[in-house]
């Protein structure tokens, strides 16, 4: 069973990873 806290943490990690990927992609693109 998945807890709401685990889903919340997973969303935060996914969001942070997406932000880092966008920043890295922009840095490499320029």
From TrEMBL:
GO biological process, one term: photosynthesis
Main location: plastid
Protein keywords: Chloroplast, Membrane, Photosynthesis, Photosystem I, Plastid, Thylakoid, Transmembrane, Transmembrane helix
Stretches that traverse the bilayer: 7-29
Highest rank taxon of the organism: Eukaryota
Family of this protein: Belongs to the PsaM family.
Name used for this protein in its record: Photosystem I reaction center subunit XII
Biological source species: Bulboplastis apyrenoidosa
């Amino acid at each position: 069973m998945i807890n709401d806290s685990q889903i919340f943490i997973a969303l935060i990690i996914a969001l942070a990873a997406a932000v880092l990927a966008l920043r890295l992609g922009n840095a490499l693109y320029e």
